[in-house]
Amino acid sequence: MEMDVAGTVAEWIQQSTKIVVLTGDELSSESGLSDYLGLGLNPHIRDFRENKDVRADYWKKLKEIYPSIFNAEPSPSHLALAELEMIGSLDCIFTQATDGLHHKAGSNSVIELNSSMLWVTCTSCGKDYSTDEVLSLVEKGDEIPKCIECGSDQLKPPVSFPGQPPPHWETREAWIRLHNADLFIIVGASLEHEPVASFPFLAKERDTKVVIISENQSPADDFVDAVIYGKPSQVLTYIADKIKQGITIT
Question: What is the pLDDT at residue 249?
Fold first, then answer.
């Protein structure tokens, strides 16, 4: 890890008045979760709506992996960001992850760009359920759970399946927060696709400092103010510790 750069980033955090953070699946991986969106879990939305076998297969797969999601514990990265929210000027975290681990770590201002796997919506009548509640129906023998309000079997987590646009409100809110930020930190996130691919460049157009922390290279690396290649948990823990060292408790 590039300690000198990390120390500089710690100074930028202390000097900033409004910080936004984008996180992604590298943080989920640190908590033992794979990239479920990349495992073929989510079918094309057209197939899901029109084919009962596709819906049955989806709920079978979700039943198998959901306990890992529900029981996962926040990584040191999640905990360090929750600390920075308490002691600094962190305005919000927007995340590509759907596992809810930022909430579990204690972060209060979280925008889930891809929504959450922890709840399910009936796309016919709009009733919401916890994912546990819906999977209990699957465990009782219903291959495809049905809404207790309207009887529809068109239930799904609010995450965007292939063929669906990303949630609109979350993307808009993230851009508003980024528009007003003076420091943008990208941690373990993928910048390969929109809407987030343009976020670093939009921030730089407004003279916002941009930092990328990741084990992987990204298309924006040559255009931002600082890049730290390393495990997010190690980098963020180091930065949080540096900032805490400079805090005087009275």
Answer: 46
**Does residue 242 share a domain with residue 129?**
no
Instruction: Report the DSSP beta bridge partners of residue 200.
Output: none
Q: Is there a contact between 158 and 116 (Cβ–Cβ < 8 Å)?
A: yes
Which residues neighbour 179 within 8 Å (Cβ) at sequence distance 6 or greater? 202, 206
The answer on 172 and 52 residing in a single domain is no
Do the beta carbons of residue 20 and residue 178 sit within 8 Å? yes
| Single-letter code of the amino acid located at 110 | V
| Distant-in-sequence, close-in-space partners of 216: CB < 8 Å, separation ≥ 6 | 26
User: Residue 250: which pLDDT band, with cuts at 50, 70 and 90?
Assistant: very low
Q: Can you name the residues that pair with 22 across neighbouring β-strands?
A: 94, 186
Q: What is the CATH number of the domain that holds 249?
A: 3.40.50.1220
- Verify that 109 and 38 share a domain, yes or no: no
Same domain, 202 and 143: no
CA neighbor of 9 nearest in space, from 225, 246, 233, 190: 225
36-84 pLDDT, tens digit each = 555 578 999 999 999 999 999 999 999 988 999 999 999 999 999 999 9
- Residue 35 pLDDT grade (very low, low, confident, very high; cuts 50, 70, 90): low
Q: At 212, phi and psi to the nearest 5?
A: -115, 130
State the pairing for strand pair 128-130/119-122: antiparallel
pLDDT at 137: 82
Q: What is the pTM of this model?
A: 0.89
Tell me the one-letter amino acid at 40: G
Mean pLDDT of 156-168: 88
The secondary structure of residue 160, as a DSSP letter, is P
Residues 3 and 81 in one domain: yes
